[in-house]
Amino acid sequence: MVEKNSSKTLLSANQLTCIREERILFDELSFEITAGEIVQIEGPNGSGKTSLLRILAGLSRPYAGDVHYQGMNIIRARDEFNDDLLYLGHLAGVKSELTAEENLNFNLRISGYDKFDTRDILAKVNLAGFEEALAGHLSAGQHRRTALARLWHTNCKIWLLDEPFTAIDKKGVEELEHLFLAHAKRGGCVVLTTHQDMGIIGDDILRKICLEYRFV
Amino acid sequence: MWKWLHSYADPERAYNLSGKLLPWFAMLATALVGIGSVWGLAFAPTDYQQGDSYRIIFIHVPAASMSMAAYMAMASSAFIGLVWQIKSADWAAAAIAPIGAVITFIALITGATWGKPMWGTWWVWDARLTSELVLLFLYLGVIALYASFEDKVLAARAAGILAIVGVINIPIIKYSVEWWSSLHQPSTIRITEKSTMSTDMLYPLLINIAGFGLMIGAITLIRFRSEILARNGMRPWVRELAIAEGVK
Amino acid sequence: MKKGISFRQAFFTLLKRDLQIAIRHKGDIFNPLLFFILVVTLFPLGIGPEPQVLSRVAPGVIWVAALLASMLSLERLFKADYTDGSLEQMLLSPQPLPLMVLAKVLAHWILTGVPLILVAPLLAVLLHLEDNSYGALIATLALGTPVLSLLGAIGVALTVGLHKGGVLLSLLILPLYIPVLIFATTAIDAAGMNLPYSGHLAIIGAMLVGSLVLAPFAIGASLRVSTN
């Protein structure tokens, strides 16, 4: 356990303080995320879960404190970090003017992959037969799956997922959970926020970081 | 450089340091502007060509020269904030913007007022007046952008980027406007050059330029301090300060 | 699952995507163009139809209209990407941000700048532009509109997260457009008088190079603030 902590820390947050609209969301928050961990950020609405994820991804800047990726500040080592990061926000990043296949193709290429079979990947998220459909015509769940499809073709270790289960049916959630477990086993880590209960990833595996709603 | 800067990046230290500097700036500015203005407006000799109307230069020239200097100061501060990620520097830049805009506006108004007796019209598309007008627009852009963001920490960063973009463009704009006006106008209209000025006129002018600079510095410090307090309202040290002030 | 995309491939992937989206969304191409034509048409109605007067103001009118059309069309440059989350993905992709931004600006220029250049000579006919000035008109627009797109994109990137766009955007970027306007219109004037104007073009060209090099960084930094 000790060895694991010292050698495989992927992401560490140091004394993070986040202030939104003159309100302190969290103050001097520190934690480490090691390879093989699945971490759920918990807390009521408005407690700063999304803000924390965005800070971890390097999208938002904390009021104070910093985030390190394998010992390097993510702002200074942005290229290396982005190369190892897969972030999916609650906005899916799917273009409604493009088809499911074009969307996935673009997302994967922009992430740096050049050899992949979009049809095969789309089949894995139950979108077989919808490859040519414009994303704008897909249902909310299918839209979400188009974004999530990237998880099936990636070698990024750090997954930061904001509400990945939104609009996904029960079976889909189970498939995602299996995917997370497999990813953790390969030495990756998953940090996610969700209000849904997970059936397969039990509390013994799942680590929780709790944020409270703070007044003032 | 980095270490030194960083020690003042802490808002509390920046607040205390600016508090110590403020009285010096304020006293010197009052003294210099007082001496320069009284000397220039009351005692300097009358110009043989323009009579007493030339005396407006004791306000116009300091305002015009400081309008540009204030923009430079704002952009440098924004640059420090952007590169070294120091929030206090962003706030300082945001604090300078409205002061710079007012000074630029004063320069424009006094320039136009001076133009009336000199050229017989309130406004001519003279190169200096035109660049001063564009400078005012640049200031107003920074202020408007700052005002549009709800989150003032972000607002200061965004305004800072705009200020830096503006400062790169200022020389280009100035050059193009000068070139444009030389192309479109007979060169008969020229503002008296400083070098032809007698020392009795020059000294009060220089004193006023320095005074205006210090005055801008003093007002910036006041705005900077309230900016820090506003952004750090939830911090313990600000609360303690508020309690201490309230007790007094 | 090796990552094997070169910067050039990433650049063209994004460029192709933006063009593809715009082709499926044709209003974005035609509306600014229509605006450009309308504004130019308004001037003869406002100042009278005398050919001498019109040909005197033609360079300025066409360029001011081009400036406004370019600014209006720019407003949508990052908006859609911002609202659907693709902008975040772009910021987090391993590709260099200035390069991505440049691809987007180039796509935008192809869609709005090029049509503008093509229509401008027709409008110049309506305004009785001097016969010698057509070459200069095309050349200044070809060199100048990319500068407008690049500078304007900075303002757009700064305001993309805000609800109020238009008026604020014009306040931010129109002052920056002044040098391009000055050199472009004087070049066209010079051409009309049979004077050489290659010096003007060289200066606009220098502005293009300068903004090509610097603007993508400013746009990138602005986007990072806007998505914060």
Automatic annotation (TrEMBL), chain A:
Which SUPFAM superfamilies does this chain map to? P-loop containing nucleoside triphosphate hydrolases
UniProt name for this protein = Cytochrome c biogenesis heme-transporting ATPase CcmA
The answer to whether UniProt assigns keyword Protein biosynthesis to this entry is: no
Enumerate the UniProt keywords alphabetically: ATP-binding, Cytochrome c-type biogenesis, Membrane, Nucleotide-binding, Translocase, Transport
Q: Which GO terms describe its biological process?
A: cytochrome complex assembly
Gene giving rise to this polypeptide: ccmA
Q: Which GO terms describe its molecular function?
A: ATP binding; ATP hydrolysis activity; transmembrane transporter activity
SMART domains this protein is in? Answer: AAA
Q: Which PROSITE patterns match?
A: ABC_TRANSPORTER_2
Supply the InterPro entries for this chain: AAA+_ATPase (IPR003593), ABC_transporter-like_ATP-bd (IPR003439), ABC_transptr_haem_export_CcmA (IPR005895), P-loop_NTPase (IPR027417)
Task: List each copy of the ABC transporter domain by range.
Answer: 11-213
UniProtKB/TrEMBL annotation, chain B:
How does this chain sit within the bilayer?
Multi-pass membrane protein
Which residues span the membrane? 21-44, 56-84, 91-115, 127-147, 154-173, 202-224
Q: Which domain of life is it from?
A: Bacteria
Q: Which residues form the Cytochrome c assembly protein domain?
A: 13-184
Primary location: membrane
Q: Which NCBIfam families match?
A: ccmC
Of which family is this protein a member? Belongs to the CcmC/CycZ/HelC family.
Q: What is this protein called?
A: Heme exporter protein C
TrEMBL record, chain C:
| Descriptive protein name | Heme exporter protein B
Topology within the bilayer = Multi-pass membrane protein
Q: Which GO terms describe its biological process?
A: cytochrome c biosynthetic process; cytochrome complex assembly
UniProt GO MF annotations: heme transmembrane transporter activity
Q: What does the record give as the function of this protein? A: Required for the export of heme to the periplasm for the biogenesis of c-type cytochromes.
Subcellular location as annotated: Cell inner membrane
Q: Where are the transmembrane segments?
A: 29-48, 60-78, 99-127, 133-160, 167-188, 200-223
InterPro entries named among the record's database cross-references: Cyt_c_biogenesis_CcmB, Cyt_c_CcmB_bac
Keywords assigned: Cell inner membrane, Cell membrane, Cytochrome c-type biogenesis, Membrane, Transmembrane, Transmembrane helix, Transport
* PANTHER family according to UniProt: CYTOCHROME C BIOGENESIS B-RELATED, HEME EXPORTER PROTEIN B
GO cellular component term of the entry, any: plasma membrane
Pfam families in the record: CcmB
**Which family is this sequence assigned to?**
Belongs to the CcmB/CycW/HelB family.
What is the species listed in this Swiss-Prot or TrEMBL entry? Shewanella hanedai
Which positions are tagged coiled coil?
none
